[in-house]
Amino acid sequence: MKVVHQLGRAGFVETVRGNNGGLKLGRPPAEINVGQVVRRMEPDMNLVPCFEAANACVLTPACELRDVLGDARDAFLAVLDDCTLADLARPRRRLAALFRTQEPRPS
User: Measured between alpha carbons, how far is 45 from 1 in angstroms, rounded to an integer?
Assistant: First the structure.
């Protein structure tokens, strides 16, 4: 519920009440940027403790790993920034076929 709440607050999804209720997209898939979704759900993106403001590591002044990890994080987010939900759903026929072939879950 926390995830749905955050996605709803950001406008990525809307909740629908009632018998046929559930979730629906809050905007068209082409307008939902994957990088924005990830940033909303993981706002600090601190891969290691030294990324935090209260960094107390004595190695930080000479540490190259911190910069490398920061560059890797930035590159990861840059790739996601170039992707929308519509891009991920593009192979519709293949995706639909996969959903049709799934065995129903036992109740």
Answer: 21
Rounded to whole angstroms, the Cα distance separating 84 from 33 reads 4
Do 33 and 83 meet the contact criterion of CB atoms below 8 Å apart?
A: yes
DSSP state of 33: B
CATH number listed for the domain at residues 2-101: 1.10.10.10
Note the pLDDT of residue 96: 78
The one-letter code for the residue type at 4 is V
Encoded tokens for 72: 């890797």
Q: Considering the chain, what percentage of its residues have pLDDT values greater than 70?
A: 93
H helix or E strand, kind and range, residue 36: helix 34-41
Is-above-0.90 flag for pTM? Answer: no
Taken in order 60, 61, 62, 68, is the CA torsion positive or negative?
Answer: positive
Q: Phi, psi at residue 8, to the nearest 5°?
A: -70, -45
